[in-house]
């Protein structure tokens, strides 16, 4: 029944709290990467374990994609958030350590990139716990952000994430500003930094592997991203990006990311921030509002 739905479904008439951005900013851009590596392909089809060319799409992230993205972010003096599955940290520790060394935020992205499912709560809990342990043991970090693998979540898992210290989620598609989840029992869940699917680079740059759709050229993607930013800025909203190093770390496509972020910065009133920074600002405003 509709009344059984979690968070904001039963309160569609209630607007998200309109907390102001930090002084001088009209909107925010959240540059974030999903470092799926080979898990994107292993979860798609278990037979890909032996399909080495398919797996090499994911392997590109360690060899080229992530290092080039780190170089670009360093040149632009921008800090980003990298959502990483635990499996990827185990298999590519050097790549992940380089992300941390450069001062970027690391967020939780499951263990094997398994899509969360209400029927698999015990397994999903295990994936959460296993990755938290891996992050602490290998990277020396405790993540406060979570992006759901394959973009799915449910009430029980949101509650468990809160219990494990996850402050914010960046998975839902139902707003253009941060908001607080309300769970079915009425308690507060994590803060949500909602995603705009227009900023998912996979839709433009790698969909041809198992789809007849062609790759989108730079001009088309920038046109979409720039128009979305312009309207989001007018509305005072949040642009949460979903970039993948095996897409945006390619030679031409890294220029799309560079040019978009440079244009956003050029406004002078667009806050480019990590998920942790945005969530902390929301929490401070929420506390001030009482």
UniProtKB/TrEMBL annotation:
Source domain of life is: Bacteria
Q: Biological process GO annotation list?
A: carbohydrate metabolic process
Gene3D superfamilies recorded for this chain? Glycoside hydrolase/deacetylase (3.20.20.370)
Single GO molecular function:
hydrolase activity, acting on carbon-nitrogen (but not peptide) bonds
Q: Where is the NodB homology domain?
A: 51-290
InterPro entries per the record? Glyco_hydro/deAcase_b/a-brl (IPR011330), NODB_dom (IPR002509), PgdA-like (IPR037950)
Q: Briefly, what is this protein's role? A: Is involved in generating a small heat-stable compound (Nod), an acylated oligomer of N-acetylglucosamine, that stimulates mitosis in various plant protoplasts.
Q: Which family does the similarity line name?
A: Belongs to the polysaccharide deacetylase family.
Per its record, how is this protein called by name?
Chitooligosaccharide deacetylase
Say which species the protein is native to: Bosea spartocytisi
């Amino acid at each position: 029944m509709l009344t059984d739905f979690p968070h904001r479904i039963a309160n569609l008439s209630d607007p998200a709290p309109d907390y102001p951005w930090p002084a001088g900013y009209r909107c925010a851009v959240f540059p974030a990467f999903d470092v799926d590596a080979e898990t994107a392909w292993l979860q798609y089809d278990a037979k890909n374990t032996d399909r080495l060319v398919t797996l090499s799409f994911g392997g590109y992230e360690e060899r080229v994609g992530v290092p080039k993205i780190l170089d670009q972010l360093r040149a632009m003096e921008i800090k980003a958030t990298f959502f990483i599955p635990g499996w990827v940290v185990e298999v590519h520790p050097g790549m992940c350590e380089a992300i941390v060394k450069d001062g970027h935020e690391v967020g939780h992205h499951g263990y094997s990139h398994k899509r969360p499912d209400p029927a698999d709560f015990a397994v999903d809990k295990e994936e959460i716990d296993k990755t938290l342990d891996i992050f602490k043991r290998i990277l020396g970090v405790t993540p406060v952000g979570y992006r759901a693998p394959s973009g799915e979540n449910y009430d029980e898992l949101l509650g468990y994430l809160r219990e494990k210290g996850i402050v914010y989620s960046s998975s839902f598609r139902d707003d253009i500003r941060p908001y607080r989840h309300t769970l079915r029992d009425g308690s507060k869940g994590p803060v949500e930094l909602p995603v705009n699917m227009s900023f998912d680079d996979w839709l433009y740059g790698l969909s041809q592997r198992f789809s007849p759709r062609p790759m989108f050229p730079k001009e088309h993607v920038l046109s979409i991203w720039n128009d979305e930013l312009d309207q989001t800025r007018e509305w005072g909203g949040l642009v949460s990006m979903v970039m993948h190093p095996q897409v945006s770390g390619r030679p031409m496509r890294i220029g799309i990311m560079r040019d978009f972020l440079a244009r956003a910065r050029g406004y002078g009133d667009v806050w480019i921030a990590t998920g942790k920074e945005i969530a902390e600002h929301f929490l401070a405003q929420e506390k001030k509002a009482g």
